[in-house]
Amino acid sequence: MKLLVNFSILSLILCVSCTNFNNLGKEFQQEDNFVPPPDMEFYGFRRENYDTNFKQLDSFATNAKFYNKQKLVELYESRTYTYDSNNTIAASLSGEFITINQETLFTQIYTNVIVKASNNTILYTEYLQWDNEKQQFRSPVPIRVEQEDGSWLTGSSMEGDMGLEHITIYNEVDEGDAIGVPVAEGQ
């Protein structure tokens, strides 16, 4: 028994003396491309925004992630409705992934973006930006604007307001009699 205890102590001393403790834990160091987990995460997210007595905004998402240090919100599979003062829907917006800067409210919408205005104008694109300071949409990628009569316009990019009433489409291609939407061709 004494031999077993001596052998155990000797092997323990040998293991401890051969271990380089300076490199211990380096395999767990944080890399530069590490994305921290969100500060808050909600499933079945809904947000309503009111101004005095009427609803301005109604937003739904299957998942919402809040990153407080980056002042960033991510929404997944989102739908947003804006309202007029008489509680009618002024515009609806949907996209699969949305990022919102909490300080400037600059919003980026990605993948299967659809914007429908109260004048039945529908905008289709894969990427859309909302500049809250200028109060306008911008899409640097190809778009399609459709009217309720079935006519549509396509272009390489666009700028426009929330109601899709004043739209500028760049490199416009007229795909039919697009009436009812004032469209200016960019230079």
UniProtKB/TrEMBL annotation:
The protein's matches in Pfam families, at most eight in alphabetical order, are given as: LptC (PF06835)
Keyword Cytoplasm belongs to the record: no
Q: Does the keyword Signal apply?
A: yes
Molecular function via GO: lipopolysaccharide transmembrane transporter activity
Alphabetic keyword roster: Signal
Domain of life (superkingdom): Bacteria
Cleavable signal peptide: 1-22
- GO cellular component labels: plasma membrane
Identify the NCBIfam families for this entry: LptC_YrbK (TIGR04409)
**What is this protein called in UniProt?**
LPS export ABC transporter periplasmic protein LptC
Which species is this record about?
Brachyspira suanatina
